[in-house]
């Protein structure tokens, strides 16, 4: 049995959280690419952990933060799975919890046990996704007891998510209340990627989301929606980040990729 839930309709802490995801498998095994996202994710494995399955299988920790990654990798769920994921705005999360996101070679970043182990233990005994969402939201409210105020790095991040593929980066920098050098340095520390890399990820996510919604999209439309200079630039960018050509990727079964991307539920 595979049960996957995506919750993004009503989020009380939307200044931090983009969406909640729940993965529950019983004696099932799925493996496919994890499509890079422009967000970080807090991952809580309450039973069998997921495995990184690129070259050799690497077991992931019970709880960690998954950073923004510049390239796709293979992920495997196998056995008894009960996983809760909280997809967060990268700059807000790193600032709130003082987590350094500076580019890591690993696909996961450890979280302080003093704060997150009790949270993991409390959510592990909750049976429903709704109960875990409520508990996590209360945890955040207790941690952040006043309204979060965006700083220049948050503003840059939000503007890239909203308009990055359509507007030149130099124009977006001009709209942020800090110098470009300061923004670049702090952005890398708070997201783990450069603004340019984030734009590339946002571009591909826009195309991927549109295609995943069931609309047939041609190469010219992909180039248009991603605001690429031409088709060859799109193909090169896609192949570099995803590790497959668009022609190969979009002509195979992508259901598991949709699950891992947080854009498709099983119910």
From TrEMBL:
Pfam families: HTH_18
Every HTH araC/xylS-type domain range: 151-252
Alphabetized GO MF terms: DNA-binding transcription factor activity; sequence-specific DNA binding
Keywords: DNA-binding, Transcription, Transcription regulation
InterPro entries: AraC_XylS_family_regulators, HTH_AraC
Keyword Transcription regulation: yes
UniProt name for this protein: AraC family transcriptional regulator
Species: Aequorivita ciconiae
């Amino acid at each position: 049995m595979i049960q996957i839930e995506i919750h993004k309709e009503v989020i009380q802490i939307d200044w931090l959280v983009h969406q909640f995801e729940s993965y529950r498998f019983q004696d099932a095994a799925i493996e496919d690419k994890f499509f890079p996202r422009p967000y970080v994710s807090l991952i809580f494995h309450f039973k069998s952990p997921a495995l990184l399955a690129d070259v050799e299988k690497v077991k992931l920790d019970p709880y960690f933060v998954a950073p923004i990654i510049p390239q796709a990798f293979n992920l495997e769920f196998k056995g008894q799975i009960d996983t809760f994921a909280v997809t967060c705005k990268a700059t807000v999360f790193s600032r709130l919890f003082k987590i350094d996101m500076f580019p890591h070679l690993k696909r996961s970043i450890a979280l302080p046990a003093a704060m997150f182990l009790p949270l993991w233990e409390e959510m592990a005994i909750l049976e429903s996704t709704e109960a875990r969402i409520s508990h996590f939201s209360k945890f955040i409210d207790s941690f952040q007891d006043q309204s979060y105020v965006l700083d220049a790095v948050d503003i840059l991040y939000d503007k890239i998510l909203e308009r990055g593929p359509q507007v030149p980066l130099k124009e977006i920098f001009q709209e942020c209340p800090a110098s470009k050098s300061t923004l670049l340095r702090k952005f890398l520390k708070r997201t783990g990627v450069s603004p340019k890399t984030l734009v590339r990820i946002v571009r591909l996510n826009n195309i991927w989301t549109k295609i995943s919604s069931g609309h047939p999209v041609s190469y010219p439309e992909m180039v248009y929606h991603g605001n690429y200079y031409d088709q060859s630039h799109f193909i090169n960018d896609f192949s570099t980040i995803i590790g497959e050509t668009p022609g190969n990727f979009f002509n195979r079964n992508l259901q598991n990729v949709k699950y891992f991307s947080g854009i498709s539920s099983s119910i």
